[in-house]
Protein 1
Amino acid sequence: MNREQKERPTLPEEILEGIATTEEDFQNKVLRPIIKMQSDLLIAHLHNQLKVSKIQLDQLPDLKKEAALTGLFSKNQSFKREIIGMVIGQFTLEEHAIYLGFTKEINRRINQIVLNRCLDLVVHKA
């Protein structure tokens, strides 16, 4: 199996300035780079989930596409756990220790960031 080596991207310093909380710091320094690095895999997983759920986005108007994706991320607990697992699987031991202190909040942030990325890439075609 040919496994592609990935490196986390670095974010511009402007994004990291003025961070107020530990959760925001973790989000901007750890979550966003991991989600950006895993973007292709996350989108492929989303497309597979849409196929399994028999949701045909290409046949829906944009507002219904947004509603379908938002519903998938809010109602499908298994899918949400898989997305979270794809992200936390990239943590270092130190990052995992921080994650354990804010699990619920970080999981919420992971799902929100991935949902927004999916909306941008799949619905709005940014």
Protein 2
Amino acid sequence: MAWSTREIAELAGTSLRAVRHYHEIGLVAEPERRANGYKQYGVAHLVRLLRIKRLTDLGFSLTQIAAMGEADDHPEEALRTLDAELSATIERLQRARVELGLILRQSVPTDLPPDLAPVAAEGQMSEADRSLVVVLSRVLGPQGLQSYADMLQNLPQDPVAAEFDSLPADTGETVRQDLAERLVPYFRALHSENPTLRDAGADAPHGANFAQDTVDKALNDVYNPAQLDVMRRLRPLLREAKHAGEVRGVS
């Protein structure tokens, strides 16, 4: 029994181009030729082509198939490795489907992690805050990110915080100082209700210092000069308020 290249390709359920490529890379041996110069394929070639097709359909690359050789009809180790890879892929795709479902149901932004996306969808974050959270999601570890998620999902609506979000870049010094002072109670309450924020960088993949440096750069990029000045004025005010509270025996 002898088949032409076209016939063997049809029997194996593959293409002429694929058969020729297998010859080029040494995956299938070249058959003998008839007197007229045409190739003549036998059963061994068909079996080999069917095996290659079966393995590629399962997900093996041609390089992996070549490494198996021709003698191993049941490459158990390679099959188990592929099974583990497929299991990981299925898990990743299932997670992706869950996230897609959330995005579609709640019309949430695609640049935020699932725990934080609903907050943005509800309009509780300014564009600058949202950009900062995107950065945080890249530098914080799971625990640190969860701390921010917990805070944002229970963020109180405060008109003073809204003033900060809409503060013009050319706001005068007096207004900036006044706003910083009026923000102290708001931020003290946030810190009191979310104590884990103090150690948000503890499990950062690249370390707390790297996370803080990245966040500082992001702050300077997403907030305007007046807002940044209010933040600078707010830090010593918070320290003073904390010290005064400790003196009075109040946390």
